[in-house]
Write a structure and sequence with these properties.
Length: 145
């Protein structure tokens, strides 16, 4: 299974990212969608999606933190990692955004992933991630634009 992971679109979903994400089974967005037009573009991908509110988002209807399972992987999703107060005991993967920098590290058996930003790399290439999963296992692949 493939899971597209993006963050910090800030109103822009580049065609190259959208084309790659269309081939995924799920989409995860770690906040700062940035505009109603970008929000619509994300949902026009027609993927089951998980999205959280970022500090630049207008939608009070979006939650700040989500926890869910996909293909046997327990995922926590938040925009700003500094605002995460605690994890569920079974968390395998924490996905976050906010910094616009691709980040991947492990701490106490939990993998932490920031896909970077598809629109504003802040000195780094714009990027997103596709997770390839297999019943509780996953591989992270970064794509730069």
């Amino acid at each position: 299974m493939k899971i597209g992971v993006i963050s910090d679109t800030h109103g822009s979903l580049p065609d190259a990212a959208g084309d790659a994400l269309k081939k995924c089974d799920y989409l995860i967005h770690a906040g700062d969608i940035g505009s109603e037009a970008c929000y619509r573009a994300i949902f026009q991908l027609n993927l089951p999606s998980y999205l959280v509110r970022g500090n630049c988002d207008w939608g009070s209807y979006m939650q700040e933190v989500l926890s869910f399972h996909i293909d046997g992987i327990s995922i926590s999703l938040i925009h700003d990692l500094n605002r995460l107060s605690r994890l569920a005991d079974d968390t395998d993967l924490v996905i976050f955004g906010h910094t616009h920098h691709y980040t991947l590290f492990e701490r106490q058996g939990v993998t932490y992933l920031n896909p970077g930003s598809v629109s504003e790399g802040r000195g780094e290439p714009n990027s997103f991630v596709i997770l390839e999963t297999d019943h509780g296992h996953f591989k992270v692949k970064q794509y730069t634009l």
